[in-house]
Design brief:
With 198 residues, the protein is an alpha/beta fold. It has a domain of 102 residues: Dna Topoisomerase Vi A Subunit, Chain: A, domain 2, CATH 3.40.1360. Helix content is 42%, strand content 14%. The protein has eight helices and seven strands. Helix 7 links the parallel strand 5 and strand 6. The longest helix has 17 residues. It is elongated, with a radius of gyration of 20 Å. Bound molecules: zinc ion. The site of zinc ion has 8 residues, from helix 4. Zinc ion (ZN) binds next to helix 4.
């Protein structure tokens, strides 16, 4: 039995497909949205479409940006010889929020997961290796401490070792399986400062 009209159901269904939105929240959002003035709803849908159309990957670090080269890569004050490798743009933002990291980043957009069928070729590893042909002193691997994050860190270490470039891994203290973006800044800084050679 359909509880609501088809169009409301369709909206709830779409919202439920978003990460972190369960059926209950989706219902709440759907009724909130249909009760808003049309102009307000248009602002929201325009913002989504605008972001989708104009945001792409930075040509250097592969983070999401609306410029060709992101502001961090463009900044001459950043240390371009130190590259921190993160799984996604949200993890990058978490480190950026500490305000203490002066190097640049490399965003993989995922982690190696044999279980999910995600191999080295499915994340931005080739692009990382390409960057290492330039002037790079250290690669800090800041993937999550999940099984996937650790697998990826080991893989990167093996890949980089022959180049002679220093590879380090952020210290544990970041809870196992913890998403970097949910960890407080002090813990992140401690993990960065306590990094060890791989
Ligand atoms: Zn960039």
């Amino acid at each position: 039995m359909e509880l609501y009209s088809g169009k409301i159901n369709k909206l709830i269904e779409e919202l439920t497909s978003l990460p972190g939105i369960g059926a209950k929240s989706a219902g709440r959002l759907a009724f909130y949205l249909v009760n808003q003035p049309e102009e307000r709803v248009k602002q929201l849908t325009d913002a989504i479409l605008d972001a989708k159309k104009n945001i792409h990957y930075c040509k250097e670090c592969w983070t999401l940006t609306d410029e060709e080269i992101c502001p961090i890569c463009k900044n001459p004050k950043r240390d371009h010889t130190t590259i921190m490798v993160v799984e996604n743009t949200r993890d990058q933002a978490a480190y950026e929020k500490t305000g203490k990291y002066e190097g640049v980043y490399h965003v993989l957009h995922g982690a190696i997961s044999p279980m999910l069928g995600i191999g080295p070729g499915d994340i931005r590893l080739k692009e990382l290796m390409k960057r290492l042909e330039g002037d790079v002193n250290e690669v800090i691997v800041a993937t999550n401490s999940s099984l996937e994050g650790e697998t990826t860190a080991m893989y990167i270490s093996k890949l980089i070792k022959p180049t002679g470039i220093k590879v380090s891994r952020i210290a544990s203290g970041v809870p196992v399986g913890g998403d970097l973006e949910n960890i407080d800044e002090v813990t992140l800084l401690r993990a960065l400062e306590g990094r060890t050679a791989l």
